[in-house]
Automatic annotation (TrEMBL):
<dbReference type="InterPro" id="IPR016055">
    <property type="entry name" value="A-D-PHexomutase_a/b/a-I/II/III"/>
</dbReference>
<feature type="domain" description="Alpha-D-phosphohexomutase alpha/beta/alpha">
    <location>
        <begin position="269"/>
        <end position="378"/>
    </location>
</feature>
<dbReference type="InterPro" id="IPR005844">
    <property type="entry name" value="A-D-PHexomutase_a/b/a-I"/>
</dbReference>
<dbReference type="InterPro" id="IPR005846">
    <property type="entry name" value="A-D-PHexomutase_a/b/a-III"/>
</dbReference>
<feature type="domain" description="Alpha-D-phosphohexomutase C-terminal">
    <location>
        <begin position="383"/>
        <end position="456"/>
    </location>
</feature>
<keyword id="KW-0413">Isomerase</keyword>
<dbReference type="Pfam" id="PF02878">
    <property type="entry name" value="PGM_PMM_I"/>
</dbReference>
<dbReference type="InterPro" id="IPR005841">
    <property type="entry name" value="Alpha-D-phosphohexomutase_SF"/>
</dbReference>
<keyword id="KW-0479">Metal-binding</keyword>
<dbReference type="Pfam" id="PF02880">
    <property type="entry name" value="PGM_PMM_III"/>
</dbReference>
<dbReference type="InterPro" id="IPR036900">
    <property type="entry name" value="A-D-PHexomutase_C_sf"/>
</dbReference>
<dbReference type="InterPro" id="IPR005843">
    <property type="entry name" value="A-D-PHexomutase_C"/>
</dbReference>
<feature type="domain" description="Alpha-D-phosphohexomutase alpha/beta/alpha">
    <location>
        <begin position="161"/>
        <end position="259"/>
    </location>
</feature>
<dbReference type="InterPro" id="IPR005845">
    <property type="entry name" value="A-D-PHexomutase_a/b/a-II"/>
</dbReference>
<dbReference type="GO" id="GO:0046872">
    <property type="term" value="F:metal ion binding"/>
</dbReference>
<keyword id="KW-0597">Phosphoprotein</keyword>
<dbReference type="GO" id="GO:0005975">
    <property type="term" value="P:carbohydrate metabolic process"/>
</dbReference>
Length: 461
């Protein structure tokens, strides 16, 4: 029997098509979504993967059969779906597997106002409902409700999305910029031309053709191998910067004029500074900025220096969004290049972060590498994954090794974090794979390398 726990994960639906799911299961998920969230209307969008149109239509039909009117917005980025959910005040479903290979697809679900639906906020109930409808032969029979079926209608939200974003960043008077964008054959190829259309930008396009088979490289800018083409093009054409979007264009990575990657932590600090300043100018006395526990210590330092309050959370969008709602934070950032904005329904949008970078760069004359120096204060390892069968035993070895280290403090907010006056490390277990994820940051490269190599030796032994 099909194991839906392998498909319906902590934050979203994600699996191989058609092996793990197909249109019949998508129909059931649409019906279950409407019943669990109690929606009378929803909005549905999809990315450019070959399986996305049919899966999203089946979901819409399942939702309509359960009595909900469905607004289909068609091809869109994930943050465009969040815009539609926020502006229309409707629950939403985005069909995408983000940066996963072509055979995958998935669904990101939200309640009205782009509020996330995760394991603890409805996703488990959706899974359990679909499981109750699934027979031993994996056939799914959705019990009919005594309701009038909902309608399906189409709506174009791209123009509204662009207008909303441009209303949140002052790009007036920026100097002309040459910008290389690598869309990775993903949804950035759909959104970027319209967003940039009225700006003084000489746009150099890389892989803007929408192609869910990803013929050029994986649409995962977190892997340095997928940034190589963009880095080469930036230096080749003398661009001011480069931007790389993932498959559903909700994450954005930045390359400076030298072809060097700017860490997402530095971008988090830069955007945080701008959002803090804007909030203070509007009379907000003590703005709050959220950061996860493996962003650089530069981020909370910059936030405090500007008279605002940093709040540290676990890794993961549901934790960031929940803490933003609790604290009314103006902004949140993660090491993975997810950027969350209060003025964007606390949802993540790489495009808005990119516009902030363009504004910061364009309103002064220095190159990006100089501008971001103040936000890049430490030596970082980046996230290093190790395949480890017994994750707890390996973590305990690291805990024991540093137990008597001078000045070391330990916390377990998310995995194991050890902090000293000159370095910190975090070791977290993957929820879905036999992996341990290591991040190390130190005052200097030599110390970082020593700690990194010591930990890797311990956990890989």
């Amino acid at each position: 029997m099909r194991d839906l726990k392998q498909l319906v994960k902590a934050y979203d639906v994600r699996g191989v098509v058609p092996d793990q799911w197909d249109e019949s299961l998508s129909f059931a998920l649409g019906a279950a979504f409407v019943r669990v969230v109690g929606a009378s209307a929803i909005v549905v969008g999809h990315d450019m993967r070959p399986s996305s149109p049919s899966l999203s239509r089946a979901f819409a039909q399942g939702a309509a059969a359960s009595g909900a009117d469905v607004v289909e917005i068609g091809l869109c980025s994930t943050d465009q779906l969040y815009y539609a959910s926020g502006s229309l005040d409707l629950p939403g479903a985005m069909f995408t597997a983000s940066h996963n290979p072509a055979q995958y697809n998935g669904i990101k679900l939200c309640r009205a106002g782009a509020s996330p639906v995760g394991q603890d906020t409805g996703l488990a109930e959706i899974r359990e409902l679909v499981e109750s409808w699934t027979g031993p032969d994996d056939s799914v029979t959705v019990p009919a409700l005594d309701v009038t079926p909902g309608t399906l209608s189409a709506k174009d939200t791209l123009g509204g999305y662009v207008g909303h974003l441009l209303g949140l960043v002052d790009l007036g008077g920026i100097r002309p910029l040459k910008v290389v964008v690598d869309a990775g054959n993903g949804m950035g190829g759909h959104t970027v031309p319209t967003v940039f259309a009225g700006l003084p930008i000489d746009l150099v396009e890389l892989y803007f053709e929408l192609d869910g088979t990803f013929p050029n490289h994986e649409a995962n800018p977190l892997d340095p191998a997928n940034l190589v083409d963009l880095q080469a093009k930036v230096t080749e054409c003398g661009a001011d910067l480069g931007l790389a979007f993932d498959g559903d264009a909700d994450r954005c990575f930045v390359i400076d004029e030298r072809g060097q990657a700017v860490s997402p932590s530095a971008i988090t600090a830069l955007v945080a500074a701008r959002e803090i300043t804007r909030a203070q100018a509007n009379g907000e006395a003590n703005p709050v900025v959220i950061h996860n526990l493996i962003t650089s210590h530069t981020v909370p330092e910059v936030v405090r220096e500007l008279g605002a309050t940093p709040v540290r959370t676990r890794v993961g969008h549901s934790f960031i969004k929940q803490e933003m709602a609790t604290t009314n934070a103006v902004f949140g950032g993660e090491h993975s290049a997810h950027y969350y904005f209060r003025d964007f329904w606390r949802a993540d949008t790489g495009m808005l972060a990119a516009l902030h970078v363009l504004a910061a760069l364009g309103h002064q004359s220095q190159p990006l590498s100089t501008l971001t120096t103040q936000y890049d204060r430490y030596a970082a390892s980046g996230e290093i994954n190790s395949t480890v069968t017994d994750q707890q035993a390996a973590t305990d070895k690291v805990r024991t090794h540093y137990a008597t280290f001078e000045g070391a403090t330990t916390d377990t907010l998310d995995g194991l974090t050890i902090t000293t006056p000159t370095w910190w490390l975090n070791l977290r277990a993957s929820n879905t794979e036999p992996l341990l994820r290591l991040n190390v940051e130190a005052d200097d490269p030599a110390t970082m390398a020593t700690v990194r190599d010591t930990v890797l030796t311990l956990i890989r032994a």
